[in-house]
Design a protein that fits this description.
The two termini are about 40 Å apart. The protein has eleven helices and no strands. The protein has a domain at about 75-125 and about 145-265. The protein is an all-alpha fold.
């Protein structure tokens, strides 16, 4: 018998796994509800806080939607990371990793599927909250225009990078590390300057803050909202750091797969 062609990367196999995630999502209304629930709740909460500050702070009078925009963009980062991590965990909980990788399915295709479903989950979660902000507070984050696309993309990619590193850690150390899927992203929140300029941080923390793409994104967001200036330097730093982190995240996950295969971990991990 002749060997069937087995390309290094197959969009067909990767798309097949993406369809599996979509079927899981479509067949569970609690999953869909959860995607939109937290962004909406946070938007309502911070929208009310913003309305309070509008009456008491001249700083916020310059850009009344700054907190709403910040919480929506933060949720892009949070949802994109969670989309990768939870999709990976669902494979482990169902003990499906071993079945996937005894087939011709490649790790690269698995990564592509995780990133694609993360994008879809993020859009499902954030767009309803953004639309509701227009109805409740007459503020549209879409008024940021093209800079919004740059902010969204950079936060999405940063979330992917963190999610891939979390997935690699769970693959290496087992489900005992699954809490990282929820905890990892919040560890960088104080350094990201989501609701305040990063200059308010202690001086010894500033190098760590500047090493995060998210801090440059939120500084750039405030520059657009307060000064009506799009800072290309912030965008450049964010893109460069994201390229480094995403490449590192992919490399770490692929390395964890190689170790897991050698040690036979793919067939042993599950609920």
């Amino acid at each position: 018998m002749t060997d069937l062609p087995n390309p290094a990367f197959s969009w067909r196999r990767s798309t097949a796994l993406l369809l599996r995630y979509l079927y899981l999502l479509r067949g569970s209304w609690p999953r869909i509800l959860e995607l939109a629930y937290w962004p909406t709740v946070q938007m309502i909460l911070w929208g009310l806080i913003t309305q309070f500050f509008l009456a008491t702070s001249s700083w916020l009078m310059q850009a009344g939607g700054v907190l709403i925009a910040a919480v929506l963009l933060w949720d892009v980062l949070f949802r994109s990371q969670l989309g990768v991590s939870i999709s990976f965990l669902e494979e482990m909980w169902s003990r499906n990793l071993g079945q996937l990788f005894v087939s011709p399915f490649r790790p690269w295709e698995f990564v592509a599927s995780l990133l694609a479903i993360s994008l879809l989950r993020t859009l499902i979660g954030v767009i309803p909250a953004a639309l509701l902000a227009i109805l409740l507070y007459e503020y549209s984050v879409f008024e940021l225009g093209l800079p919004l696309l740059a902010f969204f993309t950079n936060l999405l990619v940063m979330g992917w990078a963190i999610g891939l590193i979390v997935a690699a850690t769970i693959l290496r150390y087992g489900l005992g590390a699954e809490s990282l899927a929820w905890l990892a992203i919040f560890a960088i929140a104080p350094l990201s300057g989501i609701y305040y300029p990063i200059e308010v941080l202690p001086a010894w923390l500033l190098p760590l803050a500047y090493a995060l793409p998210s801090s440059h994104v939120f500084e750039g967001m405030r520059a657009v909202m307060f000064d009506q200036v799009f800072r290309w330097d912030y965008l450049g730093y964010a893109v460069a750091l994201n390229g480094l982190y995403l490449g590192g995240g992919i490399a770490v996950l692929l390395a964890a797969f190689r170790v897991a295969r050698v040690r036979g971990l793919l067939l042993q991990i599950g609920e």
